[in-house]
Amino acid sequence: MLKKIFALLILVAVVANPAFCRQDLWADVKKFPVPEYRIIEKGEAVSLIFAGEPYMGKATEVFAYYATPGTVSGKPELDKNLPAVVCVHGGGGTAFKEWVVKWAKAGYAAIAIDFAGNIPVVKDGKPSKNRLIKAGPDHTPNTVMLKSSGELKESWVYNAVANIARAHSLVRSFPEIDKDKTAVTGISWGGFLTCATIGVDTRFKAAVPVYGCGFIYESAVWHDYVGKMPSGLKELWVENLDPSNSLKKTTMPVLFINSPNDRWYPLNIWAKSAELPQNKTYKITYGMRHSHTAGWEPPEIKAFFDEILFGATPLPRVGDPTLSTFSRAKVVSKTKIEKAYFCFTTNTDDCLEARKWFKVPAQIEGGEVMFANNAPNVRAWYFYVEDERGLGASSKYAERTDRPGKYNYLASVNCPATLSPVSKQPRGITDAFLMANENDVVTLSDGIHRLGPLPKFDTRLRINAKSLIFRAENRGNALVGPADAGDMKNFLKHIDAVELDGVRLYTPSAK
Question: Which of 171, 182, 273, 365 is buried deepest, with most CB atoms within 10 A?
């Protein structure tokens, strides 16, 4: 009897061991079977259905759009030795015809799958979806999390990753495709799946997850999808299905794209994910929206694939940012860097979506991008550069771990400036605000804090900045001397400070 109990305990320990599950979980997927398929409709994009990953012992099917330079142009002779990209949509989406057509017009073959068992249709003149007869799991909170049985292969995550690998196998089987030139990109949940796939399907040569990442179990946004699982099931899910496990094993080059204010994949978990692969590049895009269109628009995606697959001119690379008297980061680029910015927030709000970010010009000098400051109040920051082609890259995202109290941000102002007269003069204010309009013209304006008299002044300041608000505190002298003052120094010597929404950018100590 004791021997039977001991054997049972060993069996339970093995089954409950996440390392054991992880070792065996993807074995069938890695056989990379080429699925059978049938064509539904031909056109500039081919509609097809292929055999999906079996789900709960039943056969499934997956809808996809496939396009090539030949299908969009009507010239099949163009389809030779093509690179191919697998496109993975986000939550609420489906396979998008316009996405694969976009890639085909750029010289790539592309396949876009629906990862939730749907087929796109048009109802009442509007895009909609129908369920396939042999649909696999839908994409819902209940299918993302594990069932009480703890069966990993019944999770939507496992099924979706397996079907991405099947789509890859299918497109690689087509005679027009160069098997050694394939890549994958996904948007939002598709970015999550891209991260989850590339450690499993290592046949891809490059990947670009947009927004989506791993460590979603650490974000309150995804509580309904992961957080509601009982502790034992949650640990099992984290150890086997969260994309962080895949990213740790990823050796292919990966370009991570996100916005500093993304609601669904905030920068804290995104940055942790982006650190994991051996070969990574970052693009944090100030002001980027969260949508499918915004997710497939960045030209850096194709430029990155061209670089990796064909040896084309690479994107710039920005090293890790420092934060000291001079914040700086190394820049490696074979093209001329035309613009550089220091992007930062002083907000300590744990809701990263609510943080207000600032983008101020930085210096480019000697293979480095720099911004002068001693910045004890900067909460998080990164550098962003753009080259002569208009292609951008950023440093990794950095964040302070301490919680600074009252802010005291000091920085020199390096912007070139010209001064010229304006007709209207402020009246009776103690604070003058400099507002940048869309033409990069900053004007001293009135209407703010009418607290007392102020010497008359007459100026317009032109700087290399956009959508920024500065505050100049008067010293009791005219803010600006002669109207034809020639540079920033002639302006700064008449003020006590320049502030950016409460963040001090200039003080007498920096003069």
Answer: 273
